[in-house]
Amino acid sequence: WEYGRLNITNTVLSKRKLLKIRDEGVIDSLDDPRLYTLPALRRRGVPPAAINGFVRELGVTTANTVIEVGRLEKHIRDCLNDITPRLMGALQPLKVILENLPANHFEEVSLPFKPRDDSFGYHTVPFTRTLYIDASDFRLEDSPNYYRLAPGKTVGLQNIKYPITCKDVKRDADGNVTEVICHYENGGSSVPKPKAYIQWVADCPERNSPIRISEVRIFKDLFNHANPHNKDEVPGGWLSDVNRDSLEVYKDAVVEVGFWDVVKQHVPAKKAERSLYYDGVRTQLVRIGYFALDKDSELPDNFADIKGFAGSKIVLNRVIALKEDVNK
To answer: What is the pLDDT of residues 289-322, one digit of tens each?
Structure first.
């Protein structure tokens, strides 16, 4: 057997230092998903195969080197891309009303869990008059290089035949947009092909849609510099380099009902039979990132069907963001 010390940028691995930042209240435990201990990586939702691939690529060296965290992140993305189903969701849901559809409009839409890969299977979601989109997909002021929804602008809905056009908005007393009124372009008139498609989640209580997420936790680098031990870069010492804003929490997020199908694939219905940890429930929320179910979640003692999940507390950890085009 051979071994070498492995250091990664933007973190510390010393147990003494990890205990110090825990005692300082920066983290709650040694499996905090912002850390790079094995329990922390597991809780975050990093697959074992990604860690093994990363270590295999590095090989063994006696040199005391610091590896760019981006190399590990590449293995995580590649691994998750191969094993995770795709779902639609919104971190900051914004209500959309399709004005020309009746109040009781209901369609069932069959969606693949992974486009162009039938081995992942399919699931159905409702499509109704009231939808939720992510607030980041709408703005009041349009611009030439902006292709998503804005007043007077048309945008496509993922996996839906017809696009929607924004006709009006409603605001609260502070001027914040609370509702977007749109026209569903199913009348056969000539509508330009949209340049962008956005994700959506239907409001359909009969189908328990949307799924309300108690918390979505977004993790950022725990340290501001790549090497917090470098006294030239961090003259105040490694502890002064801690990023106190490394955790961002969303409390109003929604996801589509296909999420329960993913849970049922990994978590036994009866609590007494649950030998797997929740972090095995991983999914890609389209255009947002890869997520895993955190152990702080609470599922019912027994769920035989979708309705059996009523009263669940769902906490999602973002494993890693999607790699975006630098020109996007």
So the answer is: 999 999 999 999 888 877 888 889 999 999 999 9
Place of tokens 């007494």: 272
The per-residue pLDDT for 6 is 82
223 token code pair: 């340290």
> Residue 200, Cβ neighbours under 10 Å: how many?
25
| CA gap 16, 175 in Å, rounded | 50
Average pLDDT across each block of 10 residues of the chain; the chain has 328 residues. List them in order.
79 92 93 95 96 90 83 96 97 98 97 95 97 97 93 96 96 96 88 91 96 97 91 90 95 96 90 76 96 94 83 95 65
| CA angle centred on 87, ends 82 and 89, rounded to 5° | 135
Instruction: Of 52, 101, 54, 95, give the one whose Cα is nearest residue 73.
Output: 54
Q: What is the pLDDT of residue 324?
A: 62
In angstroms, the Cα distances linking 269 to 6, 120, 259 are 40, 20, 15
User: By C-alpha distance, which of 171, 136, 167 is closest to 153?
Assistant: 167
Which of the 8 DSSP states describes residue 305? S
User: Residue 313 pairs with which residues in a beta bridge?
Assistant: 298
Whether omega for the bond prior to residue 210 falls within 30 degrees of 0, making it cis, is: yes
DSSP states along 183-231: EE--S----PPPS-EE--EE-BGGGTBSEEPSEEEEE--SBSSS-TT-T
Angle between helix 69-83 and 48-58 (nearest 10): 140
Q: Which residues contact 263 (CB under 8 A, 6 or more apart)?
A: 281, 293, 299, 309
pLDDT of residue 192: 79
Distance CA 32, CA 9 (A): 17
Name the DSSP letter for residue 55.
Answer: H
Closest CA to 26 of 293, 296, 228, 240: 240
